[in-house]
Amino acid sequence: MKDTIENKVDAGVMLPLMEEFYTIQGEGFHTGTAAYFIRIGGCDVGCHWCDVKESWNAETHPPTAIEHIVENADKWSKTIVITGGEPLTWNMQPLTNALKDRGMTVHIETSGAYPLTGTWDWICLSPKKVKMPVPEIYKEANELKVIVYNKNDFAFAKAESQKVTSSCQLFLQPEWSVREKMIPLITEFVMENPEWRVSLQTHKYLNIP
């Protein structure tokens, strides 16, 4: 049985589901819109400031059939956000196929550290210096969201913006624990570089998931 489940996870027909919930998108281009979030466990990128470190170990999250995930999602919303963890650790094609068969719009939030699988309506790429995106994902990104933890992240953001297409939406977002210190710097940067926009974790201000 174990081998069978492992094979199904490898194939993407079962996935380590951490949580799923209907809420308001708090970050980036779609801030303020309702969406159903599917959080997949498993991540080895290892950002020290990650606020969902409980997602890192996939073994703590039960392998769940994608049919069950899709059935739950379809009760709530036609806009779906797949997040993690790092969802591209796994094969996303079966899940996105099943969601789109139900007429859903499917977004992903990813570090891009693994090759892109799945069929997506919106790709939010949030690169991390500790494990850089695979090169081919940059041209697919609809949104580039760089988390700003210190001043060095502004140079990193500029360098990453040179890799995406001209139509990609650019966002800077302060890491929550240093937001009071970084928001003034982000504001100044965006005023000097108006191709960028500010993203805030508004769901935390609203005290929602």
Automatic annotation (TrEMBL):
Q: Which domain of life is it from?
A: Bacteria
Instruction: Tell me the InterPro entries matching this sequence.
Output: 7-CO-7-deazaguanine_synth-like (IPR024924), Aldolase_TIM (IPR013785), rSAM (IPR007197), rSAM_sf (IPR058240)
Q: Tell me, what's a Pfam family for it?
A: Radical_SAM
The residues that hold [4Fe-4S] cluster are 43, 47, 50
The reaction(s) annotated as catalysed by this protein in its Swiss-Prot or TrEMBL entry are: 6-carboxy-5,6,7,8-tetrahydropterin + H(+) = 7-carboxy-7-carbaguanine + NH4(+)
How, per the record, is the cofactor bound? Binds 1 S-adenosyl-L-methionine per subunit.
Broadest EC class assigned to this enzyme: lyase
Look up the EC number in the record and give it: 4.3.99.3
Q: Does the keyword Repressor apply?
A: no
Q: Per UniProt, where does substrate bind?
A: 24-26, 39, 83, 209
Q: Which UniProt keywords apply?
A: 4Fe-4S, Iron, Iron-sulfur, Lyase, Magnesium, Metal-binding, Queuosine biosynthesis, S-adenosyl-L-methionine
From its record, what is one biological process in GO terms? tRNA queuosine(34) biosynthetic process
Q: Which family does it belong to?
A: Belongs to the radical SAM superfamily. 7-carboxy-7-deazaguanine synthase family.
Q: What is this protein called?
A: 7-carboxy-7-deazaguanine synthase
